[in-house]
């Protein structure tokens, strides 16, 4: 049995199938870890969502910001954006079923046996694994309950922008979500910059890529993440693995085999 982590698919269904052929994926023996953002920007979000859902327990998915955005749009909390490409999902007969499945997915997956932790964007530097699990669970509990519409109503915003254990309510949940699904640059104290999306070579003043914070409490974890296509799959931190390689932007889709770290890619038009 092999486990493969796969970077942000974002509706690139053809490339996903090509990649699975390349790694000789066997659903009877192998398992796929998806870093989130299954949907949006690419042309076939509906096909991707249906395919991954159909994999059942052969797929592990963590939620990304585009997945949460789909939930907000599908539940009429915000209008669909001009750059969104999931209208086909909204019109599908199984839209409600797919969205119900999607909101059951976690923000964090940790496998103690394999020794990997997977998130979409990153972990706040103030969080060790236990704290990260707790914070993820707080959001998941609400998102999977009959209060999920309240959470989606409060999903958007860049404030608060620094972790404080005393935060409560939807401000606390929004910040947790922003760390897990939107973070790229932050300060040593965890203050987020959610506007800058470029490469690590041009950070805002006093900000760093989150994985370069030397005193972060999760520095000993082996972390897999997506979200940051501008990294081109490179962090230069031995135990932090970036695997969003920008398929939807014309680069490639990447899978990493967990047992040995070997990477497999397919080019994306």
Q: Work out the helix count.
A: 8
Query: Uncertain spans, ≥5 residues at pLDDT below 50?
Result: none
The amount of beta strand, in percent, is 5-15%
Overall pLDDT level: 97
Percentage of helical residues? 25-40%
Q: Please identify the oligomeric state.
A: single chain
Describe the structure.
With 269 residues, this protein is α/β, with parallel strands linked by helices. It has a single domain (3-267), classed as Metallo-dependent phosphatases (Purple Acid Phosphatase, chain A, domain 2, 4-Layer Sandwich), CATH 3.60.21. The protein has eight helices and twelve strands. It has helices at 13-22, 45-54, 65-74, 87-91, 95-102, 129-143, 148-153, 169-181, and strands at 3-6, 31-34, 59-61, 109-111, 116-118, 185-186, 192-193, 208-209, 223-225, 240-242, 252-257, 263-267. The strands form three sheets. Strands 3-2-1-11-12 form a five-stranded mixed sheet, with helices on one face. The chain starts with a strand and ends with a strand. The model has no long low-confidence stretch (mean pLDDT 97).
């Amino acid at each position: 049995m092999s486990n493969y982590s796969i970077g942000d698919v974002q509706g690139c269904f053809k490339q996903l199938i090509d990649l699975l052929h390349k790694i000789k994926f066997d659903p009877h023996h192998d398992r796929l870890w998806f870093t989130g953002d299954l949907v949006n920007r690419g042309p076939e979000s509906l096909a991707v969502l249906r395919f991954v859902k159909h994999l059942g327990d052969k797929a592990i998915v963590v939620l990304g910001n585009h997945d949460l955005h789909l939930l907000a749009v599908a539940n009429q909390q915000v209008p669909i954006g001009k750059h969104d490409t999931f209208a086909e999902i909204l019109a599908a007969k199984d839209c409600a079923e797919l969205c119900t499945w999607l909101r059951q997915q976690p923000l964090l997956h940790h496998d103690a046996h394999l020794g990997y932790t997977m998130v979409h964007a990153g972990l706040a530097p103030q969080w060790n694994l236990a704290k990260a699990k707790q914070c993820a669970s707080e959001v998941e509990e609400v998102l999977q309950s009959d209060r999920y519409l309240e959470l989606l109503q409060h999903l958007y915003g860049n404030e608060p922008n620094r972790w404080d254990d005393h935060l409560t309510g939807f401000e606390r949940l929004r910040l947790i979500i922003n760390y897990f699904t939107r973070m790229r640059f932050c300060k040593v104290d965890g203050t987020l910059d959610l506007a800058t999306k470029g490469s690590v070579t041009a950070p805002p003043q006093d900000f760093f890529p989150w994985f370069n914070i030397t005193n972060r409490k999760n520095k000993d974890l082996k972390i897999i993440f997506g979200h940051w296509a501008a990294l081109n799959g490179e962090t230069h931190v031995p135990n932090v693995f970036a695997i969003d390689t920008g398929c939807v932007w014309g680069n490639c889709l990447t899978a990493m085999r967990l047992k040995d770290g070997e990477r497999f890619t397919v080019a994306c038009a």
